[in-house]
Design a protein that fits this description.
This protein is mostly beta strands. The chain is about 5% helix and about 45% strand. The protein has one domain: Immunoglobulin-like, CATH 2.60.40. A hairpin with a 5-residue loop joins strand 6 and strand 7. The longest helix has 4 residues. InterPro entries: CGDB.
Protein backbone atom coordinates (compact mmCIF):
# COMPACT_ATOMS: atom_id res chain seq x y z
CA UNK A 1 0.00 0.00 0.00
CA UNK A 2 2.76 2.47 0.95
CA UNK A 3 5.51 0.72 -1.00
CA UNK A 4 6.17 3.55 -3.42
CA UNK A 5 7.05 5.81 -0.47
CA UNK A 6 9.67 3.57 1.17
CA UNK A 7 12.76 5.12 -0.48
CA UNK A 8 13.33 8.88 -0.49
CA UNK A 9 15.48 9.07 -3.64
CA UNK A 10 16.43 12.71 -3.02
CA UNK A 11 18.11 11.75 0.27
CA UNK A 12 20.73 9.44 -1.28
CA UNK A 13 24.26 10.43 -0.26
CA UNK A 14 27.71 8.94 0.14
CA UNK A 15 29.21 8.53 3.60
CA UNK A 16 32.81 8.74 4.77
CA UNK A 17 35.50 11.00 3.31
CA UNK A 18 34.45 12.85 0.16
CA UNK A 19 37.50 11.62 -1.76
CA UNK A 20 37.12 7.98 -0.60
CA UNK A 21 33.52 7.15 0.41
CA UNK A 22 33.09 4.10 2.62
CA UNK A 23 29.36 3.69 2.02
CA UNK A 24 26.10 5.43 1.33
CA UNK A 25 22.89 6.34 3.12
CA UNK A 26 19.29 7.19 2.26
CA UNK A 27 16.08 7.95 4.10
CA UNK A 28 13.31 5.37 4.19
CA UNK A 29 9.78 5.16 5.55
CA UNK A 30 7.90 2.26 7.06
CA UNK A 31 5.61 0.40 4.67
CA UNK A 32 3.08 -0.46 7.35
CA UNK A 33 0.22 1.84 8.39
CA UNK A 34 1.18 1.84 12.09
CA UNK A 35 4.51 2.29 13.79
CA UNK A 36 6.42 -0.80 14.86
CA UNK A 37 8.99 -1.67 17.47
CA UNK A 38 12.41 -2.13 15.90
CA UNK A 39 12.53 -5.72 17.15
CA UNK A 40 9.59 -6.46 14.82
CA UNK A 41 11.56 -5.53 11.69
CA UNK A 42 12.83 -8.89 10.48
CA UNK A 43 14.56 -7.79 7.26
CA UNK A 44 15.83 -4.65 5.60
CA UNK A 45 17.32 -5.90 2.34
CA UNK A 46 19.15 -3.33 0.21
CA UNK A 47 20.22 -4.01 -3.37
CA UNK A 48 21.78 -2.11 -6.24
CA UNK A 49 20.79 -3.17 -9.75
CA UNK A 50 19.40 -6.43 -8.39
CA UNK A 51 22.56 -7.32 -6.47
CA UNK A 52 21.79 -7.82 -2.79
CA UNK A 53 24.18 -6.15 -0.36
CA UNK A 54 25.25 -8.15 2.70
CA UNK A 55 23.00 -7.98 5.76
CA UNK A 56 26.06 -7.20 7.90
CA UNK A 57 26.68 -4.04 5.82
CA UNK A 58 23.27 -2.50 6.63
CA UNK A 59 22.56 -0.32 9.65
CA UNK A 60 19.40 1.49 10.69
CA UNK A 61 18.84 4.76 12.56
CA UNK A 62 15.38 6.10 13.42
CA UNK A 63 16.98 8.90 15.46
CA UNK A 64 18.18 6.91 18.47
CA UNK A 65 21.59 6.10 16.99
CA UNK A 66 22.59 3.54 14.37
CA UNK A 67 21.99 -0.16 14.98
CA UNK A 68 22.99 -3.24 13.05
CA UNK A 69 20.10 -5.43 11.98
CA UNK A 70 21.19 -7.93 14.62
CA UNK A 71 21.06 -5.25 17.34
CA UNK A 72 17.56 -4.26 16.20
CA UNK A 73 16.30 -7.73 17.17
CA UNK A 74 16.68 -6.76 20.85
CA UNK A 75 15.88 -3.03 20.61
CA UNK A 76 12.56 -3.47 22.45
CA UNK A 77 12.37 0.14 23.68
CA UNK A 78 12.77 1.73 20.25
CA UNK A 79 10.05 2.31 17.62
CA UNK A 80 9.79 3.40 14.03
CA UNK A 81 6.68 5.61 13.80
CA UNK A 82 4.57 5.57 10.66
CA UNK A 83 5.50 8.42 8.32
CA UNK A 84 8.79 9.19 10.08
CA UNK A 85 11.94 8.92 7.98
CA UNK A 86 14.73 6.68 9.20
CA UNK A 87 18.25 6.49 7.82
CA UNK A 88 19.46 3.31 6.16
CA UNK A 89 23.27 3.27 6.20
CA UNK A 90 25.18 0.82 4.03
CA UNK A 91 28.88 0.00 4.19
CA UNK A 92 29.89 -0.19 0.52
CA UNK A 93 33.47 0.53 -0.56
CA UNK A 94 33.55 3.53 -2.88
CA UNK A 95 30.05 4.66 -1.89
CA UNK A 96 27.09 4.57 -4.25
CA UNK A 97 28.28 3.71 -7.78
CA UNK A 98 28.62 6.54 -10.30
CA UNK A 99 25.83 6.87 -12.85
CA UNK A 100 22.19 5.87 -12.70
CA UNK A 101 21.32 2.66 -10.86
CA UNK A 102 18.31 0.94 -9.36
CA UNK A 103 18.26 1.15 -5.56
CA UNK A 104 15.86 -1.32 -3.94
CA UNK A 105 14.68 -1.83 -0.37
CA UNK A 106 12.66 -4.75 0.98
CA UNK A 107 11.14 -4.64 4.46
CA UNK A 108 9.87 -7.78 6.16
CA UNK A 109 7.82 -6.90 9.23
CA UNK A 110 6.39 -9.09 11.98
CA UNK A 111 2.94 -7.80 12.85
CA UNK A 112 1.38 -9.32 15.96
CA UNK A 113 -2.08 -9.99 14.52
CA UNK A 114 -1.04 -11.22 11.07
CA UNK A 115 -0.34 -14.93 10.55
CA UNK A 116 2.21 -14.04 7.85
CA UNK A 117 4.94 -11.37 7.56
CA UNK A 118 4.15 -8.01 6.00
CA UNK A 119 6.53 -7.63 3.06
CA UNK A 120 6.96 -4.23 1.45
CA UNK A 121 9.38 -3.23 -1.29
CA UNK A 122 10.35 -0.22 -3.34
CA UNK A 123 12.85 0.35 -6.14
CA UNK A 124 13.88 3.65 -7.65
CA UNK A 125 16.27 4.74 -10.42
CA UNK A 126 18.72 7.04 -8.66
CA UNK A 127 22.08 8.71 -9.15
CA UNK A 128 24.28 11.01 -7.15
CA UNK A 129 25.20 14.36 -8.62
CA UNK A 130 28.89 15.15 -8.49
Amino acid sequence: MFDKYLIDAASLRNTGPADAPTGFAFEARLGYYRGLGLSMIEKLDVSIDGNALPRAAVRFDEGGGPLTLEEMEAAYERRWPFGAPATILVDHAGGFPAGEHELALLQQLRVSYLPFPSINSDAKRVSLSA
